[in-house]
Fold this sequence. Notes:
Blueprint: H1 3-41, E1 46-49, H2 53-66, E2 78-80, H3 85-94, H4 102-108, E3 114-118, H5 125-136, E4 140-146, H6 150-155, E5 161-165, H7 170-192
Parallel strand pairs: 1-2, 1-3, 3-4, 4-5
Helix pairs in contact: 1-7, 2-7, 4-5
Amino acid sequence: MPLHDRILGHFRDAAQTKLDAAATLAPAIEQAARLMVHGLAQGGRILACGNGGSAADAQHFASEMINRFEQERPGLAAIALTTDTSTLTSIANDYAYDQVFARQVKALGQAGDILLAISTSGMSPNVLQAVAAAHARSMHVIALTGRNGGALAEQMHADDVFLCVPAESTARIQEVHLLAIHCLCDAVDSVLLGVEE
């Protein structure tokens, strides 16, 4: 296949995956955004975690909350648990890599806070441990995953929000995750700034 056609195929696949996910994810994104607004209004924080590309997504989300998305507003309390290399490496060295987020959740999370847990497969041990720690702290969980949701799907409580991209390709799942994060940021701003119809 010519490289040009291969590249066009990626664009078509990405667009189709987003369209296929829209009807499924839109109500859950709205639910997640309202949960975030409620938690933030009560003085809570949003902790975000993930590995690799999902770590970048966690950082991207936190930066949009703390700084701003597309509208001017005060900063919102969000922490990416993926950024402190001293903390990450000391936990991995002294305990185990599957504890790198859970120990941070145990130290920083409070009842009413929210964990944004990102895993394309739903099988990342450190994300699963973070979810367990969040539940033990009476935190809500918003899971952003793909495929069939993996073990992450089984950890969800009734008051959590489960966002599962109906796709198999990691690249396509991550592309929809970024769109979902932007939708969350816009929805949170819309509710907080009173622009929701």
